[in-house]
## 1
Amino acid sequence: MVVLNIFGKIEPICISNKLKLYISNLPNEESNNWNKGLVDEMRAAVKMNIIESEKLGMKPNIDIREIYSRRFPQIPLFDDTTEDVYLKKIADNMICLYFDYSYQDMPLGDWDTNCFVIERRI
């Protein structure tokens, strides 16, 4: 999976039937929840930015509320909304590319010859 950018809510779109390549929002299911992992990563990045900025005696340069309001000015949130809510909204609106196939219908060969397989499954 490749996370591309913050775009908005979209229905899954098939880019290539032959490759079984799709574009959609990040999976947010109980068994496959990329949003939670991404929110955790963004939260850690914000904390590291704050810590590093304090060490240097500077003001942190990441403002999640500003990023959200620039990207989604038509969907304002309340002033008392927590940063976690902003991070979740951003993750909910991110889009990604992914392959959707099982072993039986794998495009371009099998696990040994497919150029899109990152790890070999045994």
Note: Helices lie at 34-55, 64-71, 83-92.
## 2
Amino acid sequence: MIPNQEQQPLTGLEIAMRWAELPSEHLSAALKALNPQLAREHAYRMAQLAAETQEKADRRNHRLQMTGLITGLVLAVGMLAGAVVLGVNNQPWLAAAFMGPSLLVLVKIFVLRESAAADVKAVQKAYATAQAPAVPPAAEPGAPPLV
């Protein structure tokens, strides 16, 4: 053995190889010592595998959550900017549709990753009731102005 080297615990195979050097009547004692060791090693490996699998699942879930948050933020900022642009260009009914329930529902879908049927119905109702303002017909040249 090398000095200052930590001694590692023996594996089940190493224990069996050392017991194999002894006479055959010691075989039953070797098997009794080997079975618990192999069971401990197996349980340890299975626990390691379960921990690695859980860690991968946690990483994937974290990535999914962060992607939803970022997508929801970009979508909300984009819809707000679009609503401002539409409001400035004299289209308040379309700006209201961007700012209304559709913004809330889309952000809810991406950030919370859930959607309810009531949310979809609210968006449909908002779009159905949002109508463009009536534009009066153009007057013919030479006709009296419409009052």
Note: Residues 27-88 form the longest helix (62 residues).
## 3
Amino acid sequence: MTSIFDVSASAGDVSGRDLGQAVESLLAGWAERVAVPVEVWALPTKEVPDELARLAYRVLVDALARVEGAREVSVAMTTGKTLRLTVSCEGRTDPPGKGTAHRNASGDDAGMSVLRTQVKARRGVYSTDLAGTGSMTITLELPLP
């Protein structure tokens, strides 16, 4: 299976002005390579600070790595008073390299813990909700200036 990191642009290349285009490109490339249908509900239309755009992009890359084994994925990223990201999947299986050996006591792996810390430092929320049916929803909310 192709790693999400093989199809994503460097987060350093993402700006707050082109976040929507970067997300659209990432999703198209990822869906093609892993053969998982992706339904895009919304893409950001408002320019956001570059630092927040890069953080949101990294969270999206992390979320896609977590849902790689899903049967279908839905993504929405919107901008208003906050930057919001929702990634939902059905029929999730644990992707390679994301097993329990790589997780800490709270169920996070090291990369997710770093992202959660960065989001919290910006007064945001990054959460994962698992359902027993193989469904997962990953959400991000970052306040915008």
Note: The helical segments are 19-34, 50-66, 110-121.
